[in-house]
Specification:
64 residues, alpha+beta, two-stranded antiparallel sheet, elongated
Length: 64
């Protein structure tokens, strides 16, 4: 679900009725370090705003 929300790329597919645009989730294995950090930042922001959940970064010390 999160990949479809934050990690899609637009593909153009030729059909009998013309060209259709389709959003396809990307693989996280193919991301650069910067792209992956942007992806996880988007998830953290969404979780905070929509779920009221705080997700710390991997190197962050967190005390509830």
């Amino acid at each position: 679900m999160l990949k479809s929300m934050f990690l899609t790329e637009l593909h153009h597919i030729e059909t009998l009725n013309g060209i259709k645009e389709v959003e396809v989730p990307k693989s996280t294995a193919e991301l650069t370090t910067k792209e992956f950090e942007e992806y996880t930042t988007s998830i953290r922001q969404w979780a905070s705003q929509e779920l009221g959940v705080y997700i710390p970064t991997p190197n962050e010390e967190w005390h509830p």
